[in-house]
Design a protein that fits this description.
The chain is mainly beta. Helices cover about 5% and strands about 50% of the residues. The chain contains one helix and 31 strands.
Amino acid sequence: MKTLRLYGAGLLAALLLALAACVPSTRGSGGGGASPDFTLSLNPTSLTVQQGSSGTTRLTITPQGGFTGTVDLSLVGAPSGVTLSATSVSVAGSGPVPLNLTVSVGSGVAPGTYNLQVRATSRSLTKTAGLSLTVTASGGGGSGAGTTWTIRNLSNPLYGVTYGSGTFVAVGDRGTILTSPDGVNWTARTSGTDNLLIDVTYGNGLFVAVGEYGDILTSPDGVNWTQPTSGTSNALNGVIYGNGLFVAVGEGGAILTSPDGVNWTQRTSGTSNALYGVTYGNGTFVAVGDRGTILTSSDGVNWTQRTSGTSNALYVVTYGNRLFVAVGGRGTILTSSDGVSWRQRTSGTGYGLYAVTYGNGTFVAVGNGGAILTSP
């Protein structure tokens, strides 16, 4: 580099003025702009994945300075057996470009925490974002899913959860809606309501949540929610999808149906008792509620009241292994093969039971006092 030495203050000032006059201005409408560039972000920035499974994080490419083109993606620092997909993303407009990235962990990857980087490259541009990956042992030997539990969220009370289209959705107090790709990392979403949300289901490509004051919320992805008109102000306590129909039940014997989650019709239930839960199985909808109320319907439109044999409240009903199981107050458990004829079972507890489900050949009911009951 050459060094110019200028002697005399007058000569230096003249030279600076001359140089300034030769440099094009970058201000105003006639000036240039920043060079094309982009930024990279991940949400969440940490994943916990079991051996032989996968986790998802959401990548966002934000173009700057008119950047467009293909951005190649890779995972840096990953041990053998950990792979990334997708491997590229196209940026065509001026807005942020989101993309779900799946991190797959082979069954032979050693358990532990790995500090990785997602690298994004386009021509001469390279950006990175940190990603912490914790690999846990697979379920062999009795230590798998359902055996060990971890608290993942401590905020507003949550009352309902479902899974669909690769996403967990949980709902609760004050309009709370959370979503997660893996059940570990959760993101709060805007529901548009401050009312209590009690239950949520998934069907026909749509999440449907219900709650206080007849609130019904729908979302195709768990992220963006809209509120159709339900036509009722009664609290809605349960919702299910079956046989091409959404069915919601609630206070005052309210029953609403919708083929698309948007347009809802009130049905005649024949009872003024509160209805707390609804399920579908073997071609039959079954709703349960206060004072031992049980209703059945083959189409969700016409409902028939059944004899339960109990005056205790029934809070939840499920279907599995060709059997309906309803649970409720004072340890009540009822079973039915067809939803019509019900038989009371001995639970061995006087605690109220508030939830029941079926999976892997076992019914599991839970309730007050930390009660957990199982039946093969």
